[in-house]
Amino acid sequence: MRPAHTGLAVLVAALWGVNFVVIDIGLDHFPPLLFCALRFLLSALPAVFLVGRPCVPWRWVVGVGLALGVGKFGLLFLGMNAGMPAGLSSLVLQIQAVFTALIACAFLGERPGRVRIAGMAVALAGIAVAAVDEGSTGPLGAFALVLVAASFWGVSNVLTRKASPGAPFNFMVWSSTVPVLPLLGLSLVFEGPSADAEALRSLDLPGAGAILFVALVSTLFCFSAWSRLLRRYAASTVAPYSLLVPAFGMAAAALFLDESVTPLRWCAAALLVAGVAVTSVGPRRRTAPAATAVQPPAPDGAPRPADTADVTGAAGAAGADLRPTPPR
After folding, report:
1. Which helix (H) or strand (E) holds 136?
2. In whole angstroms, what is the distance from residue 236 CA to residue 325 CA?
């Protein structure tokens, strides 16, 4: 890539990594489900009035919106609120590449080759090491929530591939409208109207800044920039840069949240990133002719366009937020 575009790819990965710290800050001001609902509300409005009608049938919009917004991000926010560290969350979510490959194999008939299977095994070993580390130092239940969130990201990746939206930004905006009401309803039931009302009444600058960052920066700006890169270059050229997301996420968490990185966590990071790299960009065998498709959501969770060379992609989110995978 041109140097300017390389810099842009690194910037997006850095913003998606820092986004986990911003989410941690936001969770100090909002109940997790309410915070997640507000994130998608701001991502959808007012953009939904500017992008035209949905570019794919409603079943795909609703499916991706529920899997990504309620399943992935809802559980991610709950897991972090329950004690899952921000840096470790940015790392564990990378296992979505393995979930994507497994789901694609089961439902799309896309069988991974031996190299990709080896990459999955290495990544799963990294998750096992991370679980041992978190189980000895933190709540294992919170770790499990983030792991399940990664599996929902894999579901949304496969649904996005099946939807094959011709206008990914349009698809991302409309998908963002879907989880708002379910998340608000769940928040009212499980977090309570009084807690939600108190969070909104006491809204301050850090809380407002957290919502603006996760909705506008990590979702809309980063998604747009990532899409631009994927329109210009092959997915295999762009996707590996998303492997920088957990590096930036863990570094930002250590710098701003004083999160320690244990030797076991470094070992887990090395295994997981290496395994995801092989799973995402390694050789594979296809069982059917190539068809028009899109890359799975970027690390912040936002659906992204690309060629048909890679169904799993290297993702970090969320965030992307939107998964702009990726992010969170």
Report:
1. helix 114-137
2. 17
One-letter identity of residue 216: L
Closest CA to 23 of 214, 226, 221: 214
d(CA 44, CA 173): 5
Say how far apart CA 218 and CA 250 lie, in whole Å.
17
Please report which residue ranges of 139-281 form alpha helices under DSSP H.
140-163, 168-177, 180-186, 193-201, 205-212, 222-232, 235-238, 245-256, 263-281
In single-letter form, the type of residue at position 28 comes to D
Count of other CB atoms within 10 angstroms of residue 228 = 15
**DSSP character at residue 179:** T
Is the omega angle on the peptide bond into residue 46 within 30 degrees of 0, that is, cis? Answer: yes
Mean pLDDT of 41-47: 93
* Total length of the chain: 328
DSSP code of residue 203: -
Closest Cα partner for 242 from 159, 319, 149, 185?
319
112-151 burial, b if ≥16 CB within 10 A, otherwise e? Answer: beeebbebbebbebbbebbbebbeeeeeeebbbbbbbbbb
Q: How far is residue 278 from each of residues 98, 273, 275, 302, measured CA to CA in Å?
A: 10, 9, 5, 22
pLDDT at 45: 92
Tell whether the model's pLDDT for residue 10 goes beyond 50: yes
Question: Using CA atoms, how far apart are residues 204 and 181, in angstroms rounded to an integer?
Answer: 24
DSSP-based three-state secondary structure for 118: helix
At residue 236, the pLDDT reads 61
C-alpha Rg value of the chain to the nearest Å: 18
Which 3 state secondary structure label does DSSP give 220?
Answer: helix
